């Protein structure tokens, strides 16, 4: 079992260094994951973001470098992608039923995600300075990494929706993510 109080003490010592602005987060996504910015309207239309406020979605990225994706996908995610590829080959989607170019684009985005060729990242900022919420589609490890980047900023902005407490299960998840990616070293 994790010693969350020990992790919390490490967190408190490094807290100021753990605050990343939304510009910092974007730079990290671009440099670490070779993320590229994509138009927000596609992600908004796909409705991937039931816990995001559309008024505060400010940027969307795609990560589609195969080497990076292979490194960050778990074995279980890779297995799901292989199964999806096989299923889509055996039961191909009828693109003729789509009426607009936009429908084609959105369908391809969905297929590429489910087959492991892309990860979409949607960023929200309620204070204009920090990422206050995000969605990562189809890659848990990248989601955990971004969680490690944004929570201290949410705390600084007074926007965290749970307690900064080693007994809180959501904060424990954040502490685990900080430890997993070496932010507490």
How are the elements arranged and paired?
Blueprint: H1 4-14, H2 22-33, E1 36-38, H3 40-46, E2 57-63, H4 66-72, H5 75-90, H6 101-114, E3 119-124, E4 133-136, H7 140-157, H8 169-180
Antiparallel strand pairs: 1-2, 2-3, 3-4
Overview of this protein structure:
With 185 residues, the protein is an alpha+beta fold. The protein has one domain. Helix content is 52%, strand content 11%. Strands 1-2-3-4 form a four-stranded antiparallel sheet, sandwiched between helices. Strand 3 (119-124) and strand 4 form a beta hairpin. Helix 7 crosses helix 8. This is BH0323 protein.
Helical element count?
A: 8
Q: How far do the termini sit from each other?
A: 19 Å
Q: What is the residue-mean pLDDT, rounded to a whole number?
A: 93
The tally of beta strands, per DSSP, is 4
Sheet with the most strands, sense and barrel status: 4 strands, antiparallel
Protein name: BH0323 protein
Organism: Halalkalibacterium halodurans (strain ATCC BAA-125 / DSM 18197 / FERM 7344 / JCM 9153 / C-125) (Bacillus halodurans)
């Amino acid at each position: 079992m994790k010693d969350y109080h020990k992790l919390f003490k490490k967190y408190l010592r490094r807290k100021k260094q753990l605050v990343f602005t939304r510009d910092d987060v974007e730079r990290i996504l671009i440099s670490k994951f070779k993320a590229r910015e994509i138009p927000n309207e596609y992600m908004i239309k796909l409705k991937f973001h039931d816990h995001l406020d559309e008024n505060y979605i400010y940027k969307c990225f795609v990560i589609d470098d195969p080497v990076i994706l292979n490194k960050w996908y778990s074995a279980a995610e890779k297995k799901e992608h292989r199964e999806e590829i096989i299923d889509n080959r055996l039961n191909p989607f009828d693109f003729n039923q789509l009426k607009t170019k936009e429908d084609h684009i959105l369908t391809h985005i969905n297929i590429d995600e489910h087959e492991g060729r892309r990860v979409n990242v949607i960023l929200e900022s309620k204070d204009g300075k920090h990422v206050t919420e995000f969605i990562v589609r189809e890659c848990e490890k990248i989601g955990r990494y971004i969680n490690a980047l944004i929570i201290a900023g949410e705390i600084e902005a007074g926007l965290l929706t749970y307690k900064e407490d080693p007994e809180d299960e959501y904060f424990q998840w954040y502490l685990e993510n900080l430890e997993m990616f070496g932010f507490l070293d």
